[in-house]
Write a structure and sequence with these properties.
The protein has 314 residues and is α/β, with parallel strands linked by helices. It has 2 domains: 127 residues, 3-Layer(aba) Sandwich (Rossmann fold); 150 residues, Reverse transcriptase/Diguanylate cyclase domain (Alpha-Beta Plaits). The chain is 54% helix and 20% strand. The strands form 3 sheets. A 5-stranded parallel β-sheet has the order 2-1-3-4-5, sandwiched between helices. The protein has a 5-stranded mixed β-sheet with strand order 7-8-6-11-12, sandwiched between helices. A two-stranded antiparallel ribbon has the order 9-10. Helix 4 links the parallel strand 4 and strand 5. The protein is rod-shaped and about 105 Å long.
Length: 314
């Protein structure tokens, strides 16, 4: 612990420095005037300050107030040769830890006062460290919870949302769209030949193709749209504030982008296509189940009409 002695009397400074040496465990610095004391306060980071009240040029109370304003982990013990009640009250008002009289007739009391002040600072530092650690742990816990929350609503393979997230999201958006009279659309797509890719090249190849398709969908959708993967090779696009024409155009762009995929793997170039179905709110339904069923029905119609095409729910 660091101790700073500020007193304009050299004999007092010398006595206290020698006394602190006998106490042990304290590193002592001393100053003979307020200006030097303030400079040492900045450079030595004292934990206990023994401060004389009556000094030339500046009152010890003014210096005490300056110390408190600058802050830090320290306690101040006021020293004075005058036992005025007003001085005691002022010292307490400005945040002094203790108030002792000069000359020091009871050295045990002086040592106890210094040790208590040091213990108080030590406890304060320990509490601050515990608070810092607790804050850090809370931050780590919050980050872990956010990560877990993200993982709980994210498809591991593609990084898209999963249907757990989409179910909640669509339910909220249906209420919002109904309240404000806004349109949106569902686009469901299913890959046309993933099974053939899995059979011929293995499931790792199929997984790579699904990732490529997810990237293609992302590249064609807006930031306001939401995309989820469900099942093995099926995807759902929530096209925000998109009417029939805009939703069909979006589905068409996605279809073309998927058809353009060329996945090179072990000397082979893999390709795929997708069949897409579009259903619009509120024309094709005013709840999740109806809209999903209509979009799914349109997607299967695209399959039966030759695949690699877009169909719209009637």
């Amino acid at each position: 612990m660091n101790v700073l002695i500020i007193d304009d009397e050299p004999t007092i400074r010398s006595f206290l420095s020698d006394f602190m040496a006998t106490v042990g465990e304290f590193k002592v610095a001393s100053a003979g005037d307020p200006r030097e004391g303030l400079a040492l306060f900045e450079t030595t980071n004292p934990n206990v300050i023994l401060l004389d009240i009556h000094m030339p040029n500046q009152s010890g109370f003014d210096l005490l107030r300056t110390f408190k304003e600058r802050g830090g982990a320290f306690e101040v013990i006021i020293m004075t040769g005058n036992a005025h009640i007003e001085d005691t009250l002022t010292a307490i008002k400005f945040g002094a830890y203790d108030f002792i009289l000069k000359p020091f007739s009871d050295l045990d009391m002086l040592e106890r006062s210094i040790r208590r002040a040091a213990d108080t600072v030590r406890l304060k530092l320990q509490n601050e460290e515990l608070l810092r650690q607790l804050t850090q742990k809370n931050l780590e816990l919050e980050m872990a919870n956010r990560k877990l929350e993200k993982l709980s609503v994210t498809d591991d393979l593609t990084g898209l949302f999963n249907m757990r997230y989409m179910n909640d999201y669509v339910a909220r958006e249906i209420d919002r769209s109904a309240r404000y009279g806004r349109a949106f659309a569902f686009v469901i797509l299913d890959l046309d030949n993933l099974k053939a890719i899995n059979d011929a090249h293995g499931h790792m190849a199929g997984s790579r193709m699904i990732q490529e398709v997810a990237s293609a969908i992302r590249s064609m959708t807006r930031r306001t749209d939401t995309v989820a993967r469900f099942g093995g090779d099926e995807f759902l696009i929530f096209a925000d504030e998109a009417g029939r024409e805009a939703a069909v155009a979006l589905a068409g762009r996605v279809r073309v982008q998927i058809e353009a995929i060329r996945l090179e793997l072990d000397g082979a170039v893999l390709r795929t296509t997708a069949s897409l179905g579009v259903a619009c709110f509120p024309g094709n339904g005013n709840d999740y189940q109806k809209l999903f069923a209509k979009a799914d029905e349109a997607m299967y119609k695209a399959k039966s009409n030759g695949k690699n095409r877009v169909e719209v729910a009637g």
